[in-house]
């Protein structure tokens, strides 16, 4: 599946570069959007800190006639809990993730509405803090684990500049190892989008 995603991103990029519609005179457009919401990680590995508040930023840009734009994405999430975990014990457990990636985002604007799909590759840093052997608080990290993200959503332009909308995003194929337990940082996230266009 990763080979498929790499191939798709490569061919889409080449298509944009050779597209006869994308003339040098055509202006660049795009959006800078903030995502606020919740990231629901795989419960088997992350419980009781699987459901994490999240904040992120997406930047997409491209020529006005392109059917899809280049997408850069960044997000972070974290949660604390005192319940028992299958990986480590309490009393205070904290789980967090940070993610950055790139991909493509479809571009279609109709009367202010922009329904969109995204697809890309991302790298996740995962961290878990707790008390695995009753000797004290310990933090374990696993960094730069690659996965594949895809999403769907819609935004609406207010005064032709400001964006408001929502998105559902999935991450798959991201393997992480924390405290000797192999799992993943896969998730489904639900986000409110606030931003502006240029």
Automatic annotation (TrEMBL):
Keywords: Signal. Residues 13-198 form the Outer membrane protein beta-barrel domain. InterPro entries: Beta-barrel_OMP, OMP/PagP_B-barrel. The keyword Metal-binding does not apply. The keyword Signal applies. This is Outer membrane protein beta-barrel domain-containing protein. The lineage of its organism: unclassified sequences, metagenomes, ecological metagenomes.
């Amino acid at each position: 599946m990763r080979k498929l995603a790499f191939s798709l991103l490569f061919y889409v990029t080449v298509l944009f570069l050779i597209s006869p519609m994308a003339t040098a005179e055509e202006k660049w457009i795009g959006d800078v959007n903030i995502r606020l919401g919740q990231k629901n990680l795989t419960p088997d590995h992350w419980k009781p800190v699987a459901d994490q508040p999240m904040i992120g930023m997406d930047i997409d840009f491209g020529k006005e006639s392109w059917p899809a734009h280049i997408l850069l994405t960044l997000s972070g999430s974290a949660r604390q809990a005192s319940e028992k975990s299958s990986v480590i014990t309490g009393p205070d457990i904290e789980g967090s993730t940070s993610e950055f990636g790139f991909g493509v985002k479809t571009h279609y604007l109709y009367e202010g509405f922009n329904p969109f799909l995204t697809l890309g590759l991302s790298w996740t840093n995962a961290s878990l803090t707790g008390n695995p052997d009753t000797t004290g608080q310990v933090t374990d990290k696993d960094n730069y684990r690659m996965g594949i993200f895809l999403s769907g959503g819609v935004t609406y332009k207010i005064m032709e500049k400001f964006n408001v909308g929502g998105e559902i995003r999935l991450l798959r194929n991201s393997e992480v190892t924390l405290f000797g337990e192999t799992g993943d940082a896969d998730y489904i996230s639900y986000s409110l989008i606030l931003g502006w266009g240029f």
